[in-house]
Write a structure and sequence with these properties.
Strand content: 15-25%
CATH superfamily: Class I glutamine amidotransferase (GATase) domain
Radius of gyration: 16 Å
Largest sheet: 9 strands, mixed
Order of helices and strands: EHEEHEHEEHEEHEEEH
Helix content: 25-40%
Length: about 230
């Protein structure tokens, strides 16, 4: 079962629900943030994008302290799968389930665009499923999407191949790296490769009318990686 957590201020829950329902019909449940217990047989917990708590204090900081996140953290400690998209990625870093932090974009502006991405690491089965295809193009929409981490953390992420996605063509002038992220990082994963966070929105490049199916390709690869175990 896939569990989609809803926080106050979440705005991408319905799009994400529709995408996941397409991949796992009848096996996706919405989960309100005040509920401390995840449903039985939860395989994957998804934290969608969308300005939880209005991004007051810091993006993701209040949601990271909600009752449901205690269950999400316990699920992760048991080796369960967790995916955070955009604000969900911010929540995972604030909760300490992923390293680093997401801070204000380099130009201090909200960015809404479609970006090129290289798949750089992550679960082996997922990597294999994506390796045969072209580079990804996915939408982004964020103000705090600049990934930062201490030098030792970056070195470990690089050495362990835990950088999920990188912005493409991030040259010396920053072209291709829209928010100034260190190492052009667009997503990272945990040491066991079961907790994943990314700033781009795969659910917004899913249906035919989106004009781009790369998000479906990415989410399909994740679901196949879960099913392969």
């Amino acid at each position: 079962m896939i569990v989609l957590v809803q926080f106050p201020g979440t705005t991408c829950d319905r799009e994400t629900l529709a995408a996941l329902e397409d991949l796992r019909p009848g096996r996706v449940r919405l989960h309100w943030h005040q509920d401390c217990d995840l449903p039985p047989q939860t395989e994957l917990v998804v934290l969608p994008g969308g300005f939880s708590y209005g991004d007051y204090l810091r993006a993701g900081a209040l949601a990271a302290r909600s009752p449901a996140m205690q269950a999400v953290a316990a699920h992760a400690r048991r080796g369960g799968w967790v995916l955070g998209i955009c604000n969900g990625f911010q929540v995972l870093t604030e909760a300490g389930l992923l390293p680093g932090a997401l801070v204000r974009n380099r130009d201090r502006q909200f960015i809404c665009d479609t970006v090129g991405l290289d798949v750089a690491g992550g679960p082996a089965a997922m990597m294999a499923a994506l390796a045969s295809g072209p580079p990804l193009r996915l939408p982004i929409a964020h103000r705090e999407g600049c990934y930062v981490a201490a030098p030792a953390v970056l070195e470990q992420l690089l050495g362990d191949q835990r950088i999920l996605l990188r912005y493409r063509d991030a040259g010396q002038a920053g072209a291709g790296n829209p928010n100034g992220s260190m190492q052009a990082i667009a997503g990272v994963c945990s040491a066991n490769r079961r907790v994943l966070g990314l700033m781009p929105h795969p659910e917004r490049a899913f249906a035919g009318w989106h004009g781009n199916g790369d998000g479906k390709r990415w989410l399909q690869a994740l679901v196949q990686a879960i099913d392969s175990l």
